[in-house]
Each structure stands twice: as structure tokens, then as C-alpha cells.
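Lab channel / #folding
Pinned by the channel admin:
"Please post every new chain as: sequence first, then the C-alpha cells as a reply. Keep commentary short and put observations after the output so the thread stays searchable."

First post following the new format, from NK:
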Amino acid sequence: MTATPLELMTAGDFPTVLWNDSADPRELAQSIAWGAVGATCNPVIAVTCVKNDLPRWTQRMTEIAQERPTASESEIGWQVVEEISTEAAQLLLPAFEAHGGRNGRLSMQTDPRHFRNAQALADQAVYFSSLAPNVIVKIPATATGVAAIEDAVSRGVSINVTVSFSVPQAIATAEAIERGMAIREAAGHDVSSMGHVVTIMVGRLDDWLKECAAKDGVEIDAAYLEWAGIAAFKRAYAIFQERGYRSRLLSAAFRNTGQWSEFIGGDVVISPPFGWQEKIQAAGVAPQSRMDIPVDPAIVDALYAAFPEFRRAYDPDGMSPDEFEGFGATRKTLRQFLGADEELDQLVRDVLLPAP
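Reply from TO:
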């Protein structure tokens, strides 16, 4: 039988690896069959998993409420998140052991309601890391998150940077990881099995520039707006290679198949939602090494001239950490994650106190 595009990508000819942007057990099992060696969970994914198997998780919420009679809606909901995540982590243990901790990771996201509290983020990261040996913990790329990342890494937590859309965010968080690793090494700990990744949510940068274009009446070839995230990712990758950071870049938030094909050949993680994996498989395009092929300079120049927000995202010094939280894509994504937290609370409320 002819190998599919994802199977060809993960067969060993490229250093690029596939992770599944979902913890849904059915989707993850199929993605693993295509070669995936990682997966992720966050509030949005957790809500989707609950809705996709509502009878099971409704029953489980009822049981948790009985086991923990004083637990809040949020505490019950987050226990469900933990259980979804640890089940997915179990499916990835063989890959974790085979890759010595570099892959086989299940990403758990810290509670977005802690986004202003570095200590709470780091402490929750340490706790999540204790749930399974192959958990990697997501902390947002804000000034608060940068502090939390350094702290958590120094305490032995492998990190997946999230809410990240830009070259300066990628650099700042990779530097925080390096500082945390140095502290841990100085204390005599072995860091060789830690498996950090720095996500750039490439499609969400595209989304933000499309909003800016509509709001500000910017006239630009619409096709160029599909390349902003790719351009930022490739620039960040070149800097990571030059500086020797020990974390890999991870591409997430897919909006087109170029956000897969353009990164093949790099020592990176590509993490499409399952639906995008199906589209890539259906397209039947054989993977080729393209990471070192630059985005058309005419496209980059046009984006750079038209959008101050692209300049902020593309230039290594385009934003300081104190400016990360105010970046439009950051605000939109944090609000979406906070909204998913509220929706999870509502799902628990409907179990605990059904409407009359």
C-alpha cells in the first residue's frame, strides 16, 4: 500500500515530527498510526473532548462531585481535564520511551485564569508535570509567563510555550528556558531528557493581520496574508539554529496546508488539528524539505510595509516582553481560553444543578 503524506513525513527521512493538536482518544490513536509522537490539551480542546463523549464525562462529573462534595465547578472541570490528559499521555508513553523524552509528550495547559500570576503558573506546572512522566506543560508567552517558564524549568518541568505568535515571543521564551536549564544544571540535575518546545501559533498571526487589514482598510493581495505566520516561523527557526537553543519550535493553529509543507525538513514539531491532518492526507502531496527555502521576499516586504503589527511580530526586537500581553493575537487567544474555562464550568453546572 502506498504511504500517505504524513506517513512519509514521519518515516525518518526528515527531522520534522508530527504531534496531534487534540487529546481526543479516537483522533489521537489514528494520528499515532500516521506517525504522531505527541499531542496537546487546552481548555478549548478539553471542552470539545467532553462534548464529543458527553454521556461518559457527564457520568464522570457526577462521580467526582460525589467523591469531592465541597469541590467547586472549576475544580471538578479541571479534574476532568487532568483525566483526559493523562489518558492521552498513556497512549504516547511508547513514543516517549523510544525518543528518550524528546517526543511522546502530552501537553497540558495551565489554567488561563492564572495569566497574571507567575507563581501560580509555575506551581501548577510542577503539579501537572507530576501527573505522568511524559507531560509537558503549556505556559503563555507573556511577561508573566516568561518568569513562570524560567521558574518551572528550574524545578524540572518540560515546557510547551503557548499563546505565542511572534519571533520576539519565541526568542524571549527560549531564553527563559535556557536560564531555567542553567539553574537546574548548576544544582546538579540531569536535563538531557527534558523536551521543551516553543509554539508559534502561525494561523493566529495570519488571523490577526486579516483583522487589521479589514479594520484599517489595508489593500494587499489576500494570498499574502496566508504567509505571515510562515515567515515569522522561518525567521524564528533560523535564529534558534544560529543561537543553539535547546528547545524546538512547534507550528500550531493551522489555516492552510502550507503551515505543514513549508516547515518540513526543519528540526521542528508540526502539530495540526486532526481535521487538518485528514486534509493533508487527502491532498496526497508528498513531503519535501522546504524549511530552508525562504518566503518570497516580495511577500515579506509587502507585509512589512503594510502592517505595523507584522513588523512587531517579525522583527526579533519588535516587542519587549512587557508588550506581549497587549499584542492583538495574544489578547484574543487568552480571551478564548478564558471563555473555554467558563464553558467548562457551565458544563459542570448543568450536571450539578440541572435547569428546571
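NK: The first helix runs from residue 5 to 9.
TO: also worth noting, The radius of gyration is 20 Å.
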